[in-house]
Amino acid sequence: MKLYLFIIVALLSACSSTPEQTTQQTQQTQQTQNPPSQNEIPQSKKVYFFQHKILPEWTFTTDGKFYSDLLMGNLSKLKTAATEVVSAEYASGLKSKVIANENAVLITFPKPEGLTNCFFVLIKKSENSFAFYTYEKTLSFGEDDKVAGVVGSWSEEGNHGNHGGRTYSKAADFIADILNNNS
Fold it and tell me: Which pTM value belongs to this model?
């Protein structure tokens, strides 16, 4: 129950906040809803919230500022938010790469441990909008199952798309998949 309250409060706060305000409000909500003496939120849920809620929100609501920061290699706000929402260790594993001539930036995360946590996110800018793609950890159904992850997406309206399982594990394959197929 407390997790749901945390998520609802954080989502409502994120809808009208700058990246700095969102991380401050998330931290305050965590401290209010989950004092250290109570049950801790599992790391995979914190990672999910960071990757699937905060980052798409920043992509679509900061008038391109979040994307511009990534283009310039400025990861300070990204890492600050990751530290506050997940952990300093997690934040230290974040990387970004500008995809030359494609108006796109790749974010690489530490190896996901929980299902639906991302290996990568690709943010692509078009004339007046952005596309937000994820490559998420999925279930393996045995040694013969070659699926390594699922490509997903988030829309500006907050809808999540599932573009199906994939067998690759390298960032270059994810980039090529998204840019060549527009999933």
Answer: 0.78
